[in-house]
Amino acid sequence: TGGLRRASLAITEVRLTPVLVADPPLLNVQGVHQPYTPRLIIEVLTADGITGIGETYGDTAYLDLARSLADALPGHLVSELNGLFTLADRVCGEPQDVSDAVDVGGLRGVRTADKLRLSVVSGFEVACLDALGTSLGLPVHALLGGKIRDHVDYSAYLFYRWATHPGGAGEPDDWGAALDPEGVVAQARRFARTYGFSSFKLKGGVFPPDEEIAAVRALAEAFPGRPLRLDPNGAWSVETSLYVARELAGVLEYLEDPASGTARMAEVAAACDTPLATNMCVTTFPEIREAFTTGAVQVVLSDHHYWGGLRNTRELAAICRAFGVGLSMHSNTHLGISLAAMTHVAATVPNLDHSCDTHYPWQTEDVITERHTFCGGRLAVSDAPGLGVELDHEALKRLHQRWLDDDGAMRDRDDAAAMLRADPGWGSPAVPRW
Ligand code: GKR
Ligand code: MG
């Protein structure tokens, strides 16, 4: 029976479905989100008829690697999670073009072939864990050693934004514009009212620092004592970073990636008391040593996509514990499969010191049958087998059709290109910008 059991865990087929997901006109240092953002949905089918699902970045470079891995996977067991990495190393080869578009101009850190491969593997790892859990009747968190909390806290992710995309492209929403402190506070109030979030992160790097300082002060006044974060994605020089840190002393829970690169972050950290967080200068294991030994960061924002999956996220957490560095979670435009995966791994990490980021409330579309609901700013950790979410095949088909119908313009996320289409006179997104 052992042999039979093993045979039933064998992968018989892998389905890759690239989709385009509606995204609002959210602003960042690189430009503006496109009307639609690519994601890749992965289905792993086993011999006993179980399907596991995963999700990762869907830009062309990721898709190319995913195709190679998908072709090599049949015959592999869904339980052979370490083997996924060796298989990917063998079959994926070097991606053809590790260009700016692949990583939206560095918002998610260095762009290396390894990181690209890990981001692809993460989607397969999650799909395999989902299939394995479903097959064993165990939730994914149990496969990671079991949850140590029943709920995972998330923070409201505030963005400066336009009311609509240029020319009314994409899917409309009723959030309106947020381009000043009043707009940011109104957005935060809606997040608090609708989802119960009580910690707030503002995406900065959009307006001159004084305007963003004013927005954070307005948030502090509107939500006294609540944790606040500001993240300009490395837009500032060391001097500007220190100026902002001084102006917001005692107001911020942490300042996220004020300056770009470990050396600049270390200079800022040495001269201010505000903890610095990053999802840009520590995004791979080789980057950890320099950042931790120079004191450049006090909090790392993990992201299971580019760290290579849920088990690697736990390894990162262990290293952070060893160095006394805090842990939080980064997010990018994502759907409900990724949110389920984030929640499962977050439930198992002892040193999750801050509430996690999520873009999810900005996504009005999904490929799962029941959307996640934030209650009191948190998500309940599912104990259902696998991830605890089901694929909505109709929705998947619809969003895939949008990808098929696209002329290629949106298949690679490029915020700078989207901004330049809207405003040909827009300056270069080079950093430091201020
Ligand atoms: O979606 O505009 C965005 C964010 O700026 C994203 O691209 C970043 O990767 O959210 C991320 C961050 O925390 O830096
Ligand atoms: Mg960030």
From TrEMBL:
Keywords: Lyase, Magnesium, Metal-binding. Gene3D superfamilies: Enolase-like C-terminal domain, Enolase-like, N-terminal domain. It catalyses: D-glucarate = 5-dehydro-4-deoxy-D-glucarate + H2O. The keyword Thylakoid does not apply. Residues 181-275 form the Mandelate racemase/muconate lactonizing enzyme C-terminal domain. SMART domains: MR_MLE. The keyword Lyase applies. Its cofactor is Mg(2+). Pathway: Carbohydrate acid metabolism; D-glucarate degradation; 2,5-dioxopentanoate from D-glucarate: step 1/2. Its EC number is 4.2.1.40. It is an enzyme of class 4 (lyase). Belongs to the mandelate racemase/muconate lactonizing enzyme family. GlucD subfamily. This is glucarate dehydratase. It comes from Streptomyces humicola.
